[in-house]
Amino acid sequence: MDDLLSEKEQIEKMRTWWSDYGLYVIGGVVLGAAILFGINYYQTQKVETEIAASVHYDEVAEHVVNGDLDAAEASAAKLDSEFGNSTYAAQSKLAMSRLYMDRNRDEDAAQALRELLETSGFENLKHIARVRLAKILLYQGKPEDVLSLLEGQANAAFAARYAEELGDAYVALGRYEEARASYQAALGEAQPTVDQGLIQLKLMDLPAAAAATPGEDDSE
């Protein structure tokens, strides 16, 4: 009998507890389910967005390979308007800059790269963009702009490439000792990412060290 009463008391306690806290339990379950649904929905949307952006980028890449500038510009513009913050939109700017250079439209190529550099994120792609933009600026005869673009940039993977472009800019400005130092820095990496033979030739082409300043006593 005592056991029966004890069991009834336990049931009554459970009923009382459920009456007091049941709504909180149900609310917690519903909230947890909503959070889980939201996470799954976000992930699904993110994947679908990535897929859609990749389709647009494939179109851009195909037009670039085929040399169809008008179609490439249209596809790149659509990609940029719909998925402007995606990696694919950033990559399309690199592709378009290459196509513009093939068409001798160097200023359009430079602008595409500048737009990439002005976006947030995509640091690895930005290093590529800086190197390519530096080459275009040198082609345009703007070595000072190359210095503004590259001086102070620090990245181990691109250090040699930056150093080579800086060396070329210093040569264009007649700053040969700085050019020499930059080329030597480009040759100093353990695993070369630049054409070291070409850089050696650039070093050999540099003028000899400047002669003594006129008026100095060189009789010794």
Concise overview:
The protein is mainly α. The protein is built from 9 helices and no strands.
**What structural class is derived from the secondary structure elements?**
mainly alpha
Count of folded domains: 2
Taken from the alpha-carbon principal axes, the silhouette is elongated
**Do you know the CATH topology of the largest domain?**
Serine Threonine Protein Phosphatase 5, Tetratricopeptide repeat
Low-confidence segments: 210-220
Which percent bin holds the helix content? Answer: over 70%
Note the gap between the termini: 124 Å
Number of helix segments?
A: 9
Strand content: under 5%
The major β-sheet equals: none
Overall pLDDT, averaged? 81
Query: Which H/E pattern describes the elements?
Result: HHHHHHHHH
CATH architecture of the largest domain: Alpha Horseshoe
CATH class of the largest domain: Mainly Alpha
Structure summary, number of beta strands: 0
